[in-house]
Amino acid sequence: MQRSFIAKNPSILIFLALLALFTLGVTVLSEGFGIGVISTSFVKTLGKTLCLCLIAVAMDLIWGFTGILSLGHFAFFGLGGYMIGMWLMYERTRMIVVDSLSQSEIPATQSEIVDAIGNQIFGVVGSSEFPLIWIFADSLFLQLLMVVLVPGLLALVFGWLAFRSRVTGVYLSILTQAMTLALALYLFQNDSGLRGNNGLSGLQNLPGVTASQDAVSMWFLWASAFALGAGYLLAAWVVSGKFGSVIKGIRDNEARVRFLGYSVEAYKLTVFTLTACIAAIAGALYYPQAGIINPAEIAPIASIYLAVWVAIGGRGRLYGAVIGAALVSLLSSWFTGGQAPDIPLGVYTIKWVDWWLVLLGLSFVLVTLFAPKGMGGLIDLWTDRRSPDRHGADLGPDAGALREQEAEQ
Amino acid sequence: MSTLLEVSGVSVTFDGFRAINNLSFSIGDAELRAVIGPNGAGKTTFMDIVTGKTKPDEGRVIWGEKSISLLKLSEAKIAQAGVGRKFQKPTVFEDQTVEENLTMALKKPRGWMAVLTYKPTASDRAKVVDLAKQIGLTDALERKSGELSHGQKQWLEIGMLLAQEPRLLLVDEPAAGMTPEEREHTTDILLEAAKTRAVVVVEHDMEFVRRLNCRVTVLHEGAVLAEGSLDHVTSNQDVIDVYLGR
């Protein structure tokens, strides 16, 4: 009756093996370490996609397993990016400033250096003073800590307020949208201390690293693959045991869990905060590969895309979230990158750059209506997993409860 | 026999409708009690109040030797204090196996950290197997509970309640939708449970109540109308007028 964690979830091993194989393949084909078939910019796209897969795993944990449709997790993703971006920008600017000041005859004092860095970074928003939030920006260690602490704390406070008032269902979704919108609007202001709509830029250049982008892009791909593997393993472990039973119970029938003596609010808060931290780590790996972060990244629509990826991939199964995020975001960059051929219809030419969103919206509607299992349903053909016949009944009374087709017999 | 639960002078109003009206009720440590009453008598609201789902407008609900007020506690804390509840409609976690359902209900620390690192011990597993035997689901341990029949779900829920090891069991219409044999089995389980704890059974079915052979409380319009043995209350003229006569 008692089997090991891996034996109970053979999909974990398969997933990790495929991820390792993918990473190895990209390495061999890359410009930095291999035969140069894959361009560095495409390596970056792949690395970024791995980060998006990681946040999709977090989304599946909160939505697919706990039943909370959070439409604000990109706020945590973006905050993670900002936190690492602050150090990257500070340190790189400091090195340039120190370098240029060393030419002068009188050695520059510490405060002169800091002033010059401030001038460089904040000149674009008409300021030169370092705001208080940059206090740790000179320390990589502290700023890495902030990557997890700041989004984690925001999630903790927001979640505590929302869950203890028993806000659920669509109202909670709207509340999370409001959170990410408010954060984006705040960051758009020039005096928010994070350079307003300019955002932080030049993040692809690691301070003190002379290696070319060909190599750096591979480092980040490896780091992203490792983070995705670790995040997947963590999520699979969290949902496998009794904790998984409790959160799945909350998804399907929250009141019943309460009468069993479990504090539903504490569990929701735990999962919300944990997934916020995972999202933040994904963001901290994503933006150095993207090179730039600005407040538009955490606009409400980003978090809605996240839900669409997980829905298309298949909710309530971790590999489904990964497949959905990878497929949709890669397709999206193919269509919007101008690579997809236009379709001339005589009177009208379909340009995919304009029509991609329509296609995405349509496929989301079609998946929701006709293939509720999502892409994961294709895997079922192979693993012979079947849905129970419940004559259309959900698996619990709550709004987020698993639907008949999503369940496993 | 000391008092385990004492409800006194409790009233609740929903949008002007007085669902519970100055209700007083008490039950001892190891006692079986049946609560009967016509629809709208306040039976379910009474359970909601004891389990913390509904907060009353006035009155007191006192629990245990230390005389704790349950009104200040959350549902989860009340359940942890030892109040178990079975709903009218069988509510089990349908996406999870019988074993997972029972394991979740076992009396163990309920905090998220303890649950995250929980590993079932040999005695936990033995307990689950033992409970499954008691409720006749030994062969179904690995099955998803959503596949079970209505009666089996009822028992699984009773099994989950027993796994919680509550000091007070509140059972809402346990025999609804059961065959005569299943009813008999349910009666046995309840009688057995009542030897070591307090059990309150809300029931419509007089035959079932007669088989329980216990003290009966009749509710009407949110207050106690009569209390005593079944024969005593059924011969009470008020009870006949509002309930049995119809």
Topology:
The complex is a heterodimer of chains A (409) and B (246).
Chain A: H1 5-8, H2 10-29, H3 40-65, H4 73-101, H5 110-122, H6 140-164, H7 169-188, E1 200-201, H8 213-240, H9 242-252, H10 254-259, H11 264-290, E2 292-293, H12 300-313, H13 318-336, E3 343-344, E4 349-350, H14 352-370, H15 376-383
Antiparallel strand pairs in A: 1-2, 3-4
Helix pairs in contact in A: 2-8, 3-8, 3-11, 3-12, 3-13, 4-5, 4-6, 4-11, 6-11, 8-9, 8-11, 12-13, 13-14
Chain B: E1 3-14, E2 17-28, E3 32-36, H1 43-50, E4 58-63, E5 68-69, H2 75-81, E6 83-86, H3 98-105, H4 112-116, H5 122-134, H6 150-163, E7 168-172, H7 180-193, E8 198-202, H8 206-212, E9 215-220, E10 223-228, H9 230-234, H10 237-244
Parallel strand pairs in B: 3-8, 3-9, 6-7, 7-8
Antiparallel strand pairs in B: 1-2, 1-4, 4-5, 9-10
Descriptive account of the structure:
The complex is a heterodimer of chains A (409) and B (246). Chain A is built from 15 helices and 4 strands. With 409 residues, chain A is mainly alpha-helical. Chain A has one domain (14-300). In chain A, the strands form 2 sheets. A two-stranded antiparallel sheet of chain A has the order 1-2. The mean pLDDT of chain A is 91. Chain B has 10 helices and 10 strands. Chain B has a 6-stranded mixed β-sheet with strand order 6-7-8-3-9-10, with helices on both faces. In chain B, strands 2-1-4-5 form a 4-stranded antiparallel β-sheet, with helices on one face. By secondary structure, chain B is α/β, with parallel strands linked by helices. Chain B has a single domain (3-244), classed as 3-Layer(aba) Sandwich (Rossmann fold). Chain B is globular, with a radius of gyration of 18 Å. The mean pLDDT of chain B is 89. The chains are: A mainly alpha (409), B alpha/beta (246). The A-B interface holds A 1-2, 238, 241-243, 245-246, 248-249, 252-253, 255-256, 258-264, 266-267, 270, 388, 390, 395-396, 402, 407-409 and B 51, 53, 74-77, 79-80, 84-85, 87, 91-96, 100-101, 103-105, 110-112, 115-116, 118-120, 125, 144, 146-147, 160, 164.
